[in-house]
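Sat 14:20. Reprocessing the chain from the morning session after the first attempt stalled halfway. Input below, unchanged.
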Amino acid sequence: MKEHIYSFQPFYSADSGKLILGSMPGGESLRRQQYYAYPRNAFWKIMGELFEFDYQLPYELRIKALVSNGIALWDTVHKCVRKGSLDADITREEANDFEWLFSECPHIKKIFFNGQAAHKLFVKHCSKLDLPAVDIKVLPSTSPANAAWSYQKKLAAWRAVLS
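Finished this time. Tokens:
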């Protein structure tokens, strides 16, 4: 039987007003213990353009740039079984503790999902939780597996995070 893999701790501040949620870190991210570590994933390049920082900064500085712009970053899934890195292969998943996160970040008013899978898993596991009312926006996955969207189309859609 395949063992569970685990997501990372969230990055946030008590003043975070927006939350970006992925599904579960991919293989390269798990290996490096960094969100969106796979070089072809457009997440950091898009964040750099939106928040005007060099997306090639050291990881800690990229995280700091997001948090200083009011962004919290986490994943929907706390642990799961998955062969490879595809969201479609996630099984036996358990959600992260969003009641705890919202108690830590009472100003979050918007959740942006990095792809459909993150949103579907959130709805599946968190719809019955007592969470505050928030605006939800599902954005195109920044993963290279989402090849139907060009980088420019992804960037244009992700500009919603600035609103």
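Helices lie at 27-32, 43-51, 59-68, 98-104, 116-126, 151-158.
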